[in-house]
């Protein structure tokens, strides 16, 4: 993840497919920060939004058809920020067009789709990346360093909580199984599944559950809409290949957990020697405590605040926002260097296998062994 800058004769030419809030908030600022990258095209079925992005992002090629992006020889890479059910066809088209691809999570509606996306990118020797944002939080990077360097001793327990206080009105396409697959599980808990596996190793077995409490049968303007079909709470207990265990819980209905829109995002590893805690609302600090002590706040060392070579100044901007720009640094670095992106589609598919198992576990009311063979 700590890529080094490499000279390029011309910048990596990037297209955004799906010009909504995620692209505007995460990815476009990262492109504009990186001298090795250039935003050259935007695609969205909403023509009014496309016109607005011409003003917001600067003039670029503009189209409502992703097929035109996939076939354009003047585009090197794409970032896909579209509804979940479109990820597979758009990704496959872009890979077939020779484009490197970063795709938002979940990669597909199930593990089979995600694994197909991985194999297609791998077989075409194209760079592929899953937009698991929180891997790039400085406190998460430093927590991983403490764990892998032995600073926590033998890792025993992983624990995460993602509590959001969101309105109970419609989620639009996100609340229907055919377009989203699942709710909180695929939207938020899947991030925690990913970094739990990055920290603790692959999950081998899980026992999971989901629940829905809000009908979401009203739009924000009060008009009626078909009710939600997906979960707004999800949880799992897991066993890791390295011997540890974990407990993960997420909800969008935790009243009082607003915190300026960032919610409560807590993850910790309890090791045989010490505990370390990541918090989204303070990503430049970490909590650490040893036996007989209480957890205390520690500043993340400067070398972990941004990837080596990144043009981002970690002292600038809202800490809980600006680390997200480093996804683009990783993606462009992998393209320039011909190296693997971290996290790649393989990581996205692995997390999808676990998320699928949560739904299967709850349906069957039993533990599920994880089979994440990518083929």
Strand and helix layout:
Elements: E1 12-17, H1 21-33, E2 37-43, H2 47-57, E3 61-63, H3 66-71, E4 77-80, H4 87-96, E5 100-103, H5 111-123, E6 128-130, H6 138-148, E7 155-163, H7 177-180, H8 184-200, E8 203-211, E9 233-240, E10 245-251, E11 264-271, E12 274-279, E13 285-290, E14 296-299, H9 319-322, H10 326-337, H11 345-364, E15 368-369
Helix pairs in contact: 1-10, 4-5, 5-11, 8-11
Relevant terms:
nine-stranded mixed beta sheet; 375 residues; Rossmann fold; single chain; 32% helix; six-stranded parallel beta sheet; Dihydrodipicolinate Reductase, domain 2; alpha/beta; 23% strand; disordered N terminus
Query: Low-confidence spans: pLDDT under 50, at least 5 residues?
Result: 1-7
Count helical runs.
Answer: 11
Alpha-beta classification: alpha/beta
CATH superfamily of the largest domain: Dihydrodipicolinate Reductase, domain 2
Shape: globular
Order of helices and strands: EHEHEHEHEHEHEHHEEEEEEEHHHE
When the domains are counted, the total is 2
Mean pLDDT: 96
Q: Helicity range of the residues? A: 25-40%
Spatial order of strands in the largest sheet: 14-13-12-11-7-10-9-8-15
**Quick one: CATH class of the largest domain?**
Alpha Beta
What is the number of beta strands?
A: 15
Largest sheet: 9 strands, mixed
Q: Examine the secondary-structure arrangement and name the CATH architecture of the largest domain.
A: 2-Layer Sandwich
What name does CATH use for the topology of the largest domain? Dihydrodipicolinate Reductase, domain 2
What's the end-to-end separation, in Å?
A: 25 Å
> What is the rounded Rg?
20 Å
How much of the residues is beta strand, in percent?
Answer: 15-25%
